[in-house]
Design a protein that fits this description.
Blueprint (H helix, E strand, L loop, with lengths): L1 H16 L21 H4 L16 H8 L5 E6 L4 E5 L4 H10 L6 E4 L2 E4 L8 H6 L1
Protein backbone atom coordinates (compact mmCIF):
# COMPACT_ATOMS: atom_id res chain seq x y z
CA UNK A 1 0.00 0.00 0.00
CA UNK A 2 2.85 2.37 0.82
CA UNK A 3 4.41 1.73 -2.60
CA UNK A 4 1.15 2.58 -4.36
CA UNK A 5 0.79 5.80 -2.37
CA UNK A 6 4.42 6.71 -3.14
CA UNK A 7 3.85 6.07 -6.88
CA UNK A 8 0.72 8.27 -6.90
CA UNK A 9 2.51 11.13 -5.13
CA UNK A 10 5.46 10.82 -7.53
CA UNK A 11 3.13 10.86 -10.52
CA UNK A 12 1.30 13.95 -9.24
CA UNK A 13 4.58 15.79 -8.65
CA UNK A 14 5.79 14.90 -12.13
CA UNK A 15 2.59 16.16 -13.74
CA UNK A 16 2.66 19.45 -11.86
CA UNK A 17 6.35 20.09 -12.61
CA UNK A 18 6.19 19.18 -16.29
CA UNK A 19 4.38 21.83 -18.27
CA UNK A 20 4.16 22.74 -21.90
CA UNK A 21 6.25 25.74 -22.83
CA UNK A 22 4.59 28.86 -24.10
CA UNK A 23 5.47 30.17 -27.57
CA UNK A 24 7.81 32.85 -26.19
CA UNK A 25 9.87 30.39 -24.12
CA UNK A 26 10.55 28.01 -27.02
CA UNK A 27 13.80 28.11 -28.97
CA UNK A 28 13.58 29.46 -32.53
CA UNK A 29 13.65 26.02 -34.16
CA UNK A 30 10.76 24.78 -32.03
CA UNK A 31 8.38 27.67 -32.78
CA UNK A 32 7.58 26.40 -36.28
CA UNK A 33 4.89 23.71 -36.54
CA UNK A 34 6.32 20.41 -37.81
CA UNK A 35 3.63 20.23 -40.49
CA UNK A 36 4.88 23.50 -41.98
CA UNK A 37 8.41 22.23 -42.69
CA UNK A 38 9.40 21.79 -46.32
CA UNK A 39 12.18 19.69 -47.84
CA UNK A 40 14.37 22.80 -47.96
CA UNK A 41 13.96 23.25 -44.19
CA UNK A 42 15.13 19.69 -43.58
CA UNK A 43 18.29 19.95 -45.70
CA UNK A 44 21.57 20.55 -43.95
CA UNK A 45 23.38 23.43 -45.53
CA UNK A 46 27.15 23.01 -45.82
CA UNK A 47 29.26 25.81 -44.38
CA UNK A 48 30.57 28.41 -46.79
CA UNK A 49 34.20 27.95 -47.80
CA UNK A 50 36.64 30.78 -48.46
CA UNK A 51 38.84 29.35 -51.20
CA UNK A 52 41.21 32.32 -51.10
CA UNK A 53 42.47 31.29 -47.65
CA UNK A 54 43.20 27.69 -48.65
CA UNK A 55 46.59 26.28 -49.48
CA UNK A 56 46.01 24.94 -53.00
CA UNK A 57 49.36 23.16 -52.99
CA UNK A 58 47.92 20.64 -50.49
CA UNK A 59 45.06 18.84 -52.30
CA UNK A 60 44.13 16.73 -49.25
CA UNK A 61 43.59 19.83 -47.10
CA UNK A 62 41.41 21.34 -49.83
CA UNK A 63 39.39 18.14 -50.11
CA UNK A 64 39.03 17.95 -46.33
CA UNK A 65 37.74 21.53 -46.16
CA UNK A 66 35.25 21.01 -48.99
CA UNK A 67 33.81 17.88 -47.34
CA UNK A 68 33.09 19.63 -44.03
CA UNK A 69 29.43 19.15 -43.13
CA UNK A 70 28.87 16.39 -45.70
CA UNK A 71 28.43 12.68 -45.05
CA UNK A 72 31.49 10.66 -46.05
CA UNK A 73 32.52 7.00 -45.81
CA UNK A 74 35.90 5.33 -45.27
CA UNK A 75 36.54 1.76 -46.40
CA UNK A 76 39.04 -0.34 -44.47
CA UNK A 77 40.57 -3.25 -46.30
CA UNK A 78 41.95 -6.13 -44.33
CA UNK A 79 41.04 -9.80 -44.30
CA UNK A 80 37.65 -8.44 -43.25
CA UNK A 81 36.35 -5.20 -44.71
CA UNK A 82 34.78 -2.42 -42.71
CA UNK A 83 33.02 0.81 -43.58
CA UNK A 84 32.95 3.90 -41.37
CA UNK A 85 30.47 6.69 -42.03
CA UNK A 86 31.10 10.24 -40.82
CA UNK A 87 28.37 12.87 -40.69
CA UNK A 88 31.07 15.53 -40.94
CA UNK A 89 33.38 14.50 -43.76
CA UNK A 90 36.31 16.52 -42.46
CA UNK A 91 36.61 14.04 -39.56
CA UNK A 92 37.38 11.24 -42.01
CA UNK A 93 40.92 12.53 -42.57
CA UNK A 94 41.67 12.42 -38.84
CA UNK A 95 40.32 8.87 -38.72
CA UNK A 96 42.40 7.93 -41.77
CA UNK A 97 45.57 9.17 -40.09
CA UNK A 98 44.78 7.18 -36.95
CA UNK A 99 43.85 4.02 -38.81
CA UNK A 100 46.97 4.06 -40.96
CA UNK A 101 49.08 3.97 -37.77
CA UNK A 102 47.63 0.54 -36.90
CA UNK A 103 49.85 -2.45 -37.68
CA UNK A 104 47.00 -4.81 -38.61
CA UNK A 105 45.56 -2.68 -41.42
CA UNK A 106 46.31 -3.30 -45.09
CA UNK A 107 44.84 -0.15 -46.63
CA UNK A 108 42.26 2.61 -46.33
CA UNK A 109 40.13 3.99 -49.15
CA UNK A 110 38.93 7.57 -48.87
CA UNK A 111 37.42 9.56 -51.73
CA UNK A 112 38.50 6.99 -54.35
CA UNK A 113 42.11 7.13 -53.16
CA UNK A 114 43.83 4.15 -51.62
CA UNK A 115 46.33 4.66 -48.81
CA UNK A 116 48.52 1.68 -47.84
CA UNK A 117 48.84 0.77 -44.17
CA UNK A 118 52.06 0.37 -42.18
CA UNK A 119 52.23 -3.32 -42.96
CA UNK A 120 50.27 -3.93 -46.20
CA UNK A 121 51.34 -7.60 -46.37
CA UNK A 122 49.85 -8.45 -42.96
CA UNK A 123 47.70 -11.58 -42.77
CA UNK A 124 45.23 -12.08 -39.95
CA UNK A 125 46.37 -15.51 -38.75
CA UNK A 126 44.13 -15.53 -35.65
CA UNK A 127 40.96 -15.70 -37.74
CA UNK A 128 42.34 -18.43 -39.98
CA UNK A 129 43.41 -20.48 -36.98
CA UNK A 130 39.85 -20.39 -35.59
CA UNK A 131 38.42 -21.75 -38.83
Amino acid sequence: MAKLLYAIVLLCCTITIAKKRDGEDKPAWAKKDIRDYSDADMERKPPSIDMSKMDMSNPEAVLQATKKGQTLMIYLIDDDRAIFMFKDGSQAWEAKAYLLEQDELKEVQLESQTYPGKNPDVKNKAIRDEL
